[in-house]
Model the fold of this input.
Amino acid sequence: MNLAVLGATGSIGSQTLEVARRRGHRILALASRRASPEFWRLVDEFRPEAYAFEQGDGEAAFGRRVTGESALTELALWPGVDTVVLAVTGFAGLPPLLAALRAGRRVAAATKEAIIAGGDLLRGAVANGLLLPVDSEHAAAFQLLRGRAEGAVRRLIITTSGGALRDWPLERLADARPEDALRHPNWSMGNLITIDSATLMNKGIELIEAHVLFGLPLERLDVWIHPTQIVHALCETVDGALYASLARPDMKLPIEQALSHPEVPVGALRPLEPEDMAELRFSRPDDQRYPSLRLCRDAGTIGGTMPAVLTAADQVAAGAFLAGDIPFPSIVPLVASVLDRHEVVESPDFEALAAADRWARRTAEDLLRRSE
Ligand SMILES: NC(=O)c1ccc[n+]([C@@H]2O[C@H](COP(=O)([O-])OP(=O)(O)OC[C@H]3O[C@@H](n4cnc5c(N)ncnc54)[C@H](OP(=O)(O)O)[C@@H]3O)[C@@H](O)[C@H]2O)c1
Done:
């Protein structure tokens, strides 16, 4: 299989490349943000026909360097690519995602910020087999929902570990340092998504992602805390049965499932044994500890440009916490302040979404400066 891997040096990108090495997939196009030593090492190893980066300089002795604002889109549309793996962070993922889908090309998509920003523009893309979710909960939900009529599903539940600060007393959260919040109990991921896991903003964004991907209303989507994260998603049907999808927490499974769909990837993961499932605990997230969930539900219900604003503001806020500029409990209120100031555009086109993304970043940065 021929792949374009956008975000090749990141957590999802490098796990995709591990899968590619093992399964013998060819990498026709590669992109990252920076021309880092790791990026050049990958170019050297995979010898793609085309590659791109935003920051830095240099050229390889082979392949074509694609430059300019539409470089990611050009790579997504590179001739001969069977599947685009979308593993960049943020809104930058939306143009290549839309372009690939419009061209009828399959996309294994991890970039949840682009999915929730895209909203209605992505409608039907999962049902027609072009958009394949890579987020572990959504990949699990995709398997659970396959072949079920929408009317048969009463509720879809996605799980969360509760993040690195789950057991911290509420009054101590203001003392949490970036290194505390970066200690995720089950997954090793990029820094921003790990901070988002601690605030549960990541899970709130995933609620909207499930709504966009599967077309289920937000009232039928739920989040449960499940510390070991062996169960990734549960599907309740109208007869009262509950179906669960269980696997070891390892992103290579959803990556392989997305790449092989509709085939089942043989031996993608070591299966669970009964003793691994001895302790399956679940609880409901507490609104006081995790105000992000309500905020995300509201943003998803309003729709239009609001989800794009949510994720852009969140990236600035989580980045400010990582830089030591704001305390942990200020992340969600900063995002809420940006949402409060936003004038929503209903049924936005791409330009309106891009403008909302820029506006949200600017507004979040202004608010940060004013609070200094
Ligand atoms: N990590 C996980 O387990 C996981 C699970 C589910 C979903 N996701 C989602 O998958 C996406 C990627 O997450 P991650 O954890 O892999 O992030 P990450 O480790 O920070 O990696 C991001 C990758 O994208 C590249 N990149 C960022 N902005 C870019 C741009 N404008 N143009 C080109 N390349 C760009 C980065 O390049 P540089 O290295 O040069 O900065 C890097 O290769 C996120 O949307 C995240 O929410 C991640």
